[in-house]
Amino acid sequence: CNRWGYEPFNDGTSQSLETGGWCVKCTGYKKSKLRQLLLHLFCLICFGIPYLFLYWYPQYRAKLGYRRTLLQLADYVLIKDKTNRIAICRVFKEPIRHFEYQLHRFIWKMESNSFELLTGKSGTLFELIETSSGVSQKQREFNLQIYGYNTIKVEVKSYFTLLFKEVLNPFYVFEILSVILWTFDEYYQYAICVIFLSGFSIMISVIQCRRQSRMLKKMVESVCNEFVTIIDEYGDNQIINSKELVPGDIILIPPQGCPMTCDALLLSGTCIVNESVLTGESVPVTKVPAIHVDENYEPTGNHAKHTLYCGTHIIQTRYYNHDKVTALVVGTACMTAKGQLIRSIIFPKGFGFDFYSDAIKFVVVMFFIASIGVAYSLYLFISKGADVETVLLRSLDIVTIVVPPALPAAMTVGTVYSQNRLKKLGIFCTSPPRINVAGKVKLVCFDKTGTLTEEGLSVWGVLMSDGHSLLEIEEKPSNFPIMSPILHAMATCHSLTMIDGKICGDPLDLSMFESTGWEIEEPGNETNRFDQLAPTVVRPSGWQFVNTIDATDNMKVPLEIGIVRQFHFSSNTQCMSVITRTLGARNMTLYTKGAPEKIFKMCLLSTIPENMSSTLAYYTATGYRVIAIAYKQLPRTFKWLHSQRIKREQVEYELIFLGLIILQNTLKPQSAPVIRQLQHARIKCLMLTGDNILTAVSVSRNCGLIAPSTPLSQVIVTSSAPRTIKLQPLHSSSERTETDASSALAIDGNTWAELSEYFPGLLPQVATRGVIFARMSPQQKAEVVETLQSLDYIVAMVGDGANDCGALKTAHIGISLSTAEASIAAPFTSTTPDVTCVPKLITEGRCALVTNFGLFNFMILYSLVQFSSVLILYVDAIELGTIEFLYVDLIITTSLAVVMGRSEPSPRLVPQRPLSSLISLSNIIPLILQVIVAAIIQYASLDLLRREPWFVPVERVEGDETAVQCWENTAVFLVSCYQYIILAVVHCKGRPHRQPIYSNGLFMGIVTMLVVFNTILLVIPFHQVTNFFELEPFFFNDTLQFRLVLLCLAGVNLVISLLIEHVLANSNWFKWCLNRIRRKKIFKNRYKIVERQILSSRFWDPLNI
C-alpha cells in the first residue's frame, strides 16, 4: 500500500502473497544483459564500492540490473515484507513456474494469473476419503517435482560464509576503512586494538550462529530418514524412504507405532499418539478415523482428532480383527505442522527495537556532523596550501574522530558482562543483543504445565452430598463405602486406557481414578481393541464380593463395573459421561462429570444442596479446580443396543447430584513470589497454555496472576448466525454481553480462531484485557504474541516444551526451561526449571541497557569533545600528536569503556523502566548541553592562556607543516583529558537499575589512577613525560598558577556535568517542558490507548469498541 493506505493499481507486475500469517509484496523482474553489463562496469570503475551498497539494498540491485516485467514472464521476484526486509528469489520454469521463499513454495496458477502458496491435499472430508486410492509411480515422480522431497531444508552455512556476511555489516566495513586510513597515518597501535576487539566480537557471533543452525538441523533430521509402508493404486504394500512421500499417498501405520514423518488423515483404525512435541502435554491422545461428511478439512481445527501430525510419535494402533490402520498423506516437508514450527524458528517475524534503530539514526547524524567538519578542514588546509595527501588524510581523519569505529564493540561491553553473569546464574544466551531487549519487557507470557506448575493434577478431597447439604470433605475417596455411587462415578467416568501395562490418559482422569484405589482391565490384545463388544472393566483392588443388586437374589458376586459407552469430553458441553453396568445388576447407570455450572443444569433441582453456591464460590476463589459429579439409573428396558445408538442429549438430563471433586494443580513454590515481584514492577503477566481453560483459571488464581477480587469472564463467539460476542463470567451460569470494566478475560484457542476470522477488530481489546489464553495450538500461541507486540508490548515468553517454540521465537524475549527443542527456538535457556530466571534476566537486561546506553552516550560525547579539540586547534594549524591521540583513544577511553560495564544489576525490580530511545529529547538535550559545556571550557582554557604574560603564540606555517608541541595544544589536551574522565563518571549511572558507582571497584580504581596521572601531567609533570607527550615543559614560577586554573576549570566542568545529567535530566519540570515541546496529549503505546477506551465507560460492550 502507498502512503495514503490505498492499494495501487495492479498492472500485472506485482501482487500480494499470503505466507501463513505474513502478507508480503511480490514484484516480477526479468534479466537484462545490457543493464547487467552496465551495472558491473560502473561497479568496477568505482573499485567495487557499489557492490557493497547493492548487497545492503537488494531492491536497487533489482531495479538497476533487471527490468520490471509481468509476473508470468519474470525470471526473478523481489519480495518485500511489512518490516521492509527484502529478498530476491529466482523463478524456476520446470515442471511449472514456481519460486521458493522462506521454505514456502509458490506456484503459478493460470486460472488466477498469479502465484499461490503450495499447500498439501485439501477439500472436504468426503472428497479426501473417496479419492484416497494411492499414488502411481508416474504420479509420484511428477508430485515430487511439484512438492519436492519430504525433507525440511536447514542450511548450515560454513564458517567462511558466516564470517563474510558478518564482516559486510556496515559498521565493520567502516572499521576496515578506518584501519586502512590509520595505517596511512601511521596510527598502528590503535588500529591493532580495534581489529582485535572487533575480531573477537565477530568470531563469537559466527560461532553462536553456526551452533544454533546445527542444533536445528539435528532436530529436523530426527523425523527424517525413516522407511514407511505405503499402499499403491493396486492395493499392494511397498516400502519406501519417507523422503519420497507425497500428498495423496496412503501409509500403513504399524501396530507397535512409529514416528510420523508427514501430516496424514486417519482413514481406518485408531491411533494413540504422543503429541508433546506440538502441545507440550505428555498425555497420549486418541485419534479416530475421519467420517464421511461434507465439511472442509481443517487439520489444525475441527478435524485435529482425525489428523496425525509430523514429528509426533504414534505409541500404538488399534484395529478391528486383522484390518489395517491406514492414513492419507495430506502434507509433507514444510507443509506439515512440524515444518511450520521449524519455519517460525528459522524466519521469525522481525521486530524493531528503539535502541538499535536509534543508534543507526544517531550514527547517520554523526556522519552529517563529520561532513561539516570535513568541509571546514578542507577549507583550512587548502587555504594554507597543503598537498592533496595531507588534505585527504586530515579531512578523512575527522570522520573517524566524529564517528568512532570502536562504537559497535563499545556498545556490546555491557551485554558481554551481563551474558557472563547470566551464565553463572545458569541462564544461557544464544543471542546477546536480546539481553538489552530484556530490559524493556512490559509483559510476560507463561506456559502452565512444567513452567508454573508441576506435572499433573492431584485430588485434594471430595465433598459428597446427602441430598440437602454438602458433607465434610473426604481427603481419601477410597474411604467411601464400597457401593457408594460417588465412588463408582470416580472409578468409571473417565477415558483412561492401558498402554504397555500402564494406565494412560488425561491427568485429571488419572488422578481421580488413582485416588479410588481401583483397578482397570481392558479385554483383548492392546493393539486389537477397536470396536470391541466386551467392555472395559473396573474393580476394587483385591476381589470384593457383594450382594447382587437384585433384591430377590442373595448370591454374592465380585464387584465389577463395565463401561459400556463413553461420551467423550467436549469443550461445548464441558462434561463427559459414561454408561456402565455393574455385574449382577439388571439395569445400566449413567455417570456424568464436568464443570459445575453445566452439571447443575442437568440435575434435578431438589438434589442440589442449599449450601452449594457458597461452597463452590469458596473453593474456586481459593484457586482449586472443582468438578461436579452426578448420576442416574437407566430403565431396565435400556439395553446394550440402545446404549450404542443413543445420543448424549437423550440421557444427560434429570440427574441426581452426587458431590464435588476438589483438585489442585500443584504450583511450583517459586511461581507465586516471582509473579508478585513482576506485578510490583508493573510488568503484566498472563498465561498462554495448551491446557484446559478451567485448569488454567485455577492455576492463575492460585499463583496470583488473577487477584481473588478480580472478576473473570470467558470470551465466547456464538456458533449460530449472526455471530456475536458474549462475555460469560466463569463459575456462573449466567451470560451477558456487558461486563465490568475491571474484568479480566479468558479465551480458548477455538474462540481465538473465530475472533481472528469474524471479529479481527476486537483482537486488541481481548489481548489487552486477556489474562488466560487456554487450549492454544503452537501457531495460536505465536499469533497471540504477535498481537501483543502489535500493541507495543515488549513481550517475554516462558515455556518448556516444543509446542512453545513458535511463541518463544516470535516473542522479543524467549526463555526456555528445557534443554530440548524449546532451547533451539529460545534465545535464553535456563538450567533451573522454574520461573526465578525471569526477574534475574530482566534485571540483567535493564542493567545491560543502562550500561550500553551510557557507553553509547560516552563514546558519542568523547568523539564530539575530541572533534571540538581538533577543530579549535586546526584554526591555528595545530594538531594533536600521535601519542596524545593514543593516550586518549586507548588509555583513557578504551580502559574506561571496558570497565564501565562491570557494574552489577540492582537486586530489586522497580516499576521505573530505563530509557531506551537515543533520539528522544530527554537524551539529546543533555548530550548537547554536555558538548556545549566541554567546548566552552576548552575555549576558555585557550582564552585564559592568551591572557598570560609569558604566552608566546605558535608561528603559523604554510603548506603541509602543522605544529604539535605548543602551549595551545598543551592547554586544550590537558583539559580534554579531564573531560573524558568526567563524561565516563557522569554516564556510569547506578540506582535504580544498577549497583552504585562505588561498587564497581575496578572502574573507580582506573578513574582514580587516570585522575592522578592527569593531575601530575598538568601540575608537576616530569621533563621526560612532557617530551614523550610533546607538551610544553614545566616552569614552576611562571606557569603553575595557570595550570591550577586549568585544574579548577576541570572541577567546574565536573560540577556542571553532574548537574546536567543527574539533576536537570531527572527533574519533573524538565520532563514537563519536554512534554510541552512535544505536545504530548495522547499515549504513545497502543495498549494504553486501548485500555483507556475500555475504561472510558463504567461498563463496556466489546461490539461497540
UniProtKB/TrEMBL annotation:
Gene Ontology terms describing biological process: intracellular calcium ion homeostasis
Domain of life: Eukaryota
A molecular-function term among this protein's GO annotations: ATP binding
One Gene Ontology CC term in the entry: late endosome membrane
Main location: membrane
Assigned keywords, A-Z: ATP-binding, Endosome, Magnesium, Membrane, Metal-binding, Nucleotide-binding, Phosphoprotein, Translocase, Transmembrane, Transmembrane helix
Pfam families given in the database record: Cation_ATPase, E1-E2_ATPase, P5-ATPase
Subcellular compartments: Late endosome membrane; Membrane
Gene3D superfamilies: Calcium-transporting ATPase, cytoplasmic domain N, Calcium-transporting ATPase, cytoplasmic transduction domain A, Calcium-transporting ATPase, transmembrane domain, HAD superfamily/HAD-like
Membrane topology annotation: Multi-pass membrane protein
UniProt xrefs under InterPro entries: ATPase_P-typ_cyto_dom_N, ATPase_P-typ_P_site, ATPase_P-typ_TM_dom_sf, ATPase_P-typ_transduc_dom_A_sf, ATPase_P-type_domA, HAD-like_sf, HAD_sf, P-type_TPase_V
Residue ranges of domain P-type ATPase A in the record: 234-345
Residue stretches spanning the membrane: 37-57, 162-182, 188-209, 359-382, 855-875, 881-900, 921-940, 970-988, 1000-1020, 1040-1060
Family: Belongs to the cation transport ATPase (P-type) (TC 3.A.3) family. Type V subfamily.
This protein's name: Cation-transporting ATPase
